[in-house]
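Archive maintenance. Older records in this collection stored only the sequence; we are now back-filling the structure field for every entry so that each record is complete. The fields below show one back-filled record exactly as it appears after the update. Entries are processed alphabetically, and Cartilage intermediate layer protein 2-like is next in the queue.

ARCHIVE ENTRY
Title: Cartilage intermediate layer protein 2-like
Organism field: Kryptolebias marmoratus
Length field: 239
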Amino acid sequence: MPVTFVSSNIFCYIYIPSDFILPIQTRSTHEIHNFLKLVSCLFTELPQCKCFTLGGWTQWFDIDNPSGTGDWELLTDLRSENPGKICDNPTDIEAVTLSGQSVAEAGEKIYKYDTTSGFVCRNEDQLDRRCNDYKVRFSCPPDVCKEVCWTKWYNRDNPSGKGDWETLNSIRKKKSKKQICPEPIYIEAVTADGDIPAINTGDNFYHYSPTIGFVCRNQDQTSGSCKDYKVRFGCPCCL
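Back-filled structure field:
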């Protein structure tokens, strides 16, 4: 459940897992300490700061598809493409098909499925020689408070050519480099019209990474054209 605090130029919120239930005397000293550190973030005067965690699940990740040897959602690769988004020591992993089926429901033989390696489904292990396309997420233990400051929205390109190329380097060159940190830890993309999250549009993305930026190529879409997107980047806040 989210706890939200809004004040002038601040927008902070905490995600508290549903199993973190009071009375507080039932919680461990470590959990209470982390909770109090999170609450203290609400009163830190940082522009657009986002305070979180107390543990919980990450977002869903999908960096591969089974068009080659299978679907390889390796933890090392996921961390490389999504710096700062996966904790150092995940406590659990969940994989589902893009249509929402669990691994058990899909009924496929899985080569790797753990918090150390990640998730791998090999085509060669399947009766029909083809895995489903999967997405994965990880559960992380309680953490200390982190602050993320978001940039404004940028929309430097549109899909009239080969696609919509909102790359970090291009945006930093066109705009003041002081507006965007050199190594963002988060990225968010939404449609320019309607602010629909990119992951909900059905488009396929060539790049969606805080260190590279966002690229949607027309050639990868069944409709032949990407939607027009805008992006913003999350940077560590400077105290």
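Update note: The longest helix spans residues 29-41. Helices lie at 29-41, 75-81, 103-106, 168-174.
Entry marked complete.
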